[in-house]
Amino acid sequence: MASSFVCTDCGFEAGKWSGKCPSCGSWSTLKESSRFIGKAAANKVSGVIDKPEKLIEVSSEAEARIATGNSELDLVLGGGIVSGMLILIGGEPGIGKSTLMLQLAQWLGEKDKKILYASGEESAAQIHMRSKRLKVTSDNILLLCTNNTESILAAIEEEKPALAIVDSIQSVASSTSESTAGSVSQLRESTNHFMRLGKTLGVPIFMVGHVTKEGYVAGPKILEHMVDTVLYFEGEMRSQHKILRAVKNRFGSTNEIGLFEMTGQGLIPVKNPNSVFVSNQMSQIGTSAACIIEGSRSFIVEVQCLATGSNYGTPQRVVVGIEQKKLAILLAILEKNLALYLRNNDVFINLAGGIRTADTSLDLAILAAIISSLKDSPLPENSVFIGEVGLNGEVRPVSQLESRISEAKKLGYENIYVSGYARLKGKKDVHKVKDLKGLYQAIS
Fold first, then answer.
1. Per-residue H/E/C for 244-257
2. What values do phi and psi take at 419, rounded to 5?
3. Which of 57, 355, 397, 412 is the most buried (most CB within 10 A)?
């Protein structure tokens, strides 16, 4: 038995303990981990290919994907589930991870696919009660309630299901490590076993993961590197709308998001995504509209701003949906170019619907909302702002501008503000602004 110290943040292994991780620099993250080394630690899986082969002789035929039966989930996965795929799905407690997995089992079970649902957190009676509420009635779903990794692996080898679900990876433990379930070594060992077996037998495996208070999957970062796809559930806990985002996908795009609505019968796809992020009253003070692109789809997003006098010595800068540093940069640009001093004002920015994005086309809409709140007057009706703002106050064109404009016009927006430097094909009925001074004059 060999003992080592593993960083819980980055997975770095060290021979001795230290207060600071030599790899990522985090403090008090090195935890002792004991694991067996040798033949006893190897999980012998029949049919493992241990001989090299010529790359040019490897079969490259495209494997057919398994459609889940849910359009939003298929979009996030890149078109469906690939054979031998290892997927890690995380999210806040109670956001709907287990609900989605149970519904996925039902969707595939209706297509005569055998599903193995392994749970290490709930009893069979608890899962059965939830299945009755979600109307999961397929007789092709096999339920296994255990905390033992080897028992799950044996069931997968014996049943050879079309899909296996492990809920959750932090609740199962392998006998090859003496650590408790959820520890760094157990997470690595169990994930490695599932990865090898899934690739060997061609069985796709979904693993539900817990998240930390920072919003990341608990455990070493290497856990996300081992799997093929990492999905995150986002959205406000009390909101009925949830967002499923792929942050890693070896078999598809990482820019796609899936929109779901939580109902009494479970998660259902949202047919009209723009109804989630935009309210019916767009002429309110401090409210603007932007058009962002996530993957292959365009969304109209409502940007809400409140700029008010500060009651404390240091003004507050609070954002929801964008990075905190983005707001600091935009406020500095605003003060420099329009001489609007916000040093004594609290500024709050919120993206409606709980969406989070890093799309730079939001810059123009955020600044328009701030100006509207400072002037205490609404923006022109049916207006949408699409543009990136540079440090010198110039409004720059953004990518896929044609599709953004088409989406806005399709939804009835008549006043579309874009960069004056944008080159548009054909005659477009838009308002062009070259800098912040032009924006201020256009909306005044």
1. EEEEEECCCCCCCE
2. -70, 140
3. 355
